[in-house]
Amino acid sequence: MTKVTPAPIRLFNTMSMQKELLEPAVPGCVGVYVCGPTVYSYIHIGNARTFTSFDVVVRYLRYRGYTVRYVRNFTDVDDKIIKAAHETGEAPVALASRYVEYFREDAKALHMVEPDVAPKVSEHLPEIVRIIQTLVDKGFAYESQGDVYFSVRADKDYAKLSKRNLDDLSVGERVQPGDQKREPLDFALWKAAKPGEPSWESPWGLGRPGWHIECSAMSEKYLGETFDIHGGALDLIFPHHENEIAQSESAHGKDLAKYWMHCGFLDLEGAKMSKSLGNVVRLRDALEKVDAEALRFFFLSTHYRHPLSFSDKALADAEARMEYFYETLRKVDERLAGKDFGAGPVHGEPHRFLGEFECAMDDDFNSAGALGALSGLFGMMNELTDKPPVKDKPLVGRTLLALRDDVRKVSGVLGLFEDDAGAWLLRRRERAVRERGIDVAEVERLLSERTAARAAKDFAAADRVRATLKEKGVEIMDTAGGTSWKVAPAQG
Ligand SMILES: [Zn+2]
Question: Are 367 and 402 found together in one domain?
């Protein structure tokens, strides 16, 4: 077996603020850690965008020949979980495990690949206690009445990822009365137990971990003291990732991660989505209205680092685009079904689009550019099926086959076009029929009327039926395979 050399990939590193060549510590093998959800509510579409972005990063690295170990954690011990559990009257652990399952359902519904490891905080207390102890022993952390804090002043390069200045950060910050910490910027590694909260044994008494320490402990366990790519949403840079760096690098004396990748924000028609504003769109609510692949297409149509604006119109556009892709694939699949075009040359350069796709993705996972290359590919498919520039049918067939194979390759990277074209289009039509209140029996009746009129060469009558259907929001397509129909795009 020949060994494939992974292709060179450049990625933007938030640490250096530059694009860098990916050079994993172990050539060919990439360790990826992505900060996962805090499991106290359903994830929203902003979270879904972040996880989809890293889903595609991992898929693409594998496509390019890298062996990837993908770790995405669950924060199942947290203030927010405890608060939510008090509201529902559940045990925090029970509430968290319920939302772990909901997250898994959501991730599956959005066609995300499973991480290789999905560790939970509640199952890693020994590792967490061990790293806190190391930080205490090395003088980076101190105990105070059962709490343990990280001493930010003890870490010379604190805030190197966000490039913030410690004195600026401290402006206006005071240690509040009742606080156990020495300096306002110090953050909790361990919190002493309070009644009604989950707690574990530790050298500092019963308590539970602070938020940031879990990622230091779990990334070390599954990827080592230094690993390749650390990812998350933009708003995790400060303080979460900064604190992870402070903890891990102070404990081990080496870099936590070589490359830091951050996914941009998603807003709602220009407004920041936030729980306090009450304008949060949950992923599962979005998936009631829009197809999962169309939502992925919408996310991927903008580079992962850029802001993305969510609106019903943007979703409708994404779904219309997916419909175009699937209509093309249905046509091509019909054309290719059961035929053998033999070996021989192809027309033009069908594989150039895959080359363009890879070029875009090699450049910091530019999925927007990659989708642009796909437009070219689907354009060529349409040209070859609708008005082939050459008469040689086997030549056209071989070219379509080459293009269809490349779509399958791309499909595995983007998590798009994984469905059967006919099934996808039917599902979309059924949803549109429900939303627009279209009477399918009536549509079928009018279609057979039209077929009869055409058979009787009464084209005026056939055209009248087409016009009637159009008024009802139904569009008909006559193809080699017969007449099919779809719901026309909504007006306005
Ligand atoms: Zn984290």
Answer: yes
How many CB atoms are closer than 10 A to CB 454? 16
In a domain, 48, yes or no: yes
Whole-number Å distance, alpha carbon 66 to ligand 1 midpoint, is: 24
Q: Quick check: is 217 in a domain?
A: yes
Compute, in angstroms, the gap from residue 339 CA to the centroid of ligand 1: 52
Burial class of residue 281, CB neighbours in 10 A (0-12, 13-18, 19+): middle
Q: Are residues 265 and 366 in the same domain?
A: no
Rounded to an integer, what distance in angstroms lies between the CA atom of residue 399 and that of residue 394? Answer: 9
Give me the domain span that covers residue 402.
290-421
- Known binding-site positions for ATP: 275
Q: Indicate if 337 and 442 belong to the same structural domain.
A: no
- The per-residue pLDDT for range 286-330, each reduced to its tens digit, is 999 999 999 999 999 999 999 999 999 999 999 999 999 999 999
Domain-terminating residue out of 238, 259, 285 = 285
Tell me which of 285, 311, 342 is where a domain ends. Answer: 285
Inter-residue contact 212 to 243 (CB < 8 Å): yes
Residue 404's CATH number: 1.20.120.640
Tell me, yes or no, whether 262 and 301 share the same domain. Answer: no
Q: What is the whole-number distance in angstroms between the Cα of residue 222 and the centre of ligand 1?
A: 14
Element containing residue 452 per DSSP (H, E): helix 440-455
* Centre of ligand 1 from the C-alpha of residue 473, in Å: 49
Residue type, 80: K
The helix/strand count (H/E) of the chain reads as: 16, 15
CA distance 299 to 18: 23
25-57 pLDDT, tens digit each: 999 999 999 999 999 999 999 999 999 999 999
CA distances for 294 relative to 312, 320, 355, 377, 418, angstroms = 12, 8, 24, 18, 12
